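Schema walk-through. Below, the input block comes first and the output block second. Nothing else is stored per chain. Lengths vary across the set, and this one has 152 residues.
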Amino acid sequence: MFEKEWTYTIRAHLSHDEQHLDLAMKGTSMVPRLSLTPTYLEFGTTALQQKQKKSFKIENFSSKAITIEFDNSGNYSFTPQKIKLSSQGQTKIQVTFCPKKVGDLNEICCLNTGVFSFPIKLFGKGIFSAKGDNSICEELPVDALNGSCLEE
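--- output ---
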């Protein structure tokens, strides 16, 4: 982790006269040093309710362990969703794309450390296709589908 020093001054005016009070605050924040490889994932075209999985690597170059949590969205999920990464440690995070509607489903999900959030760009397209056929039959807006990406 590296230290980031900060200083803020707050000026409070007292009453209707010219008096004021300056409050100076100083502090230090500990910011973790992380590396993500790659910083975005492209899933391409995936049929509705089908899954496609990719992964990225996180490395912790900090001198302390860090807890990392990921925001799942409706079309993308992270495994594991929360991890504690040791100092100088690394791990792979799996991202599953399971489109719930037709069209471009590009999203920015966040890696959260409690100190800062790091955006992860995810690109994918949901298509409607006949079961057992990988070709595109017809691209239609689909509002209600039975089933879930969590069902195996």
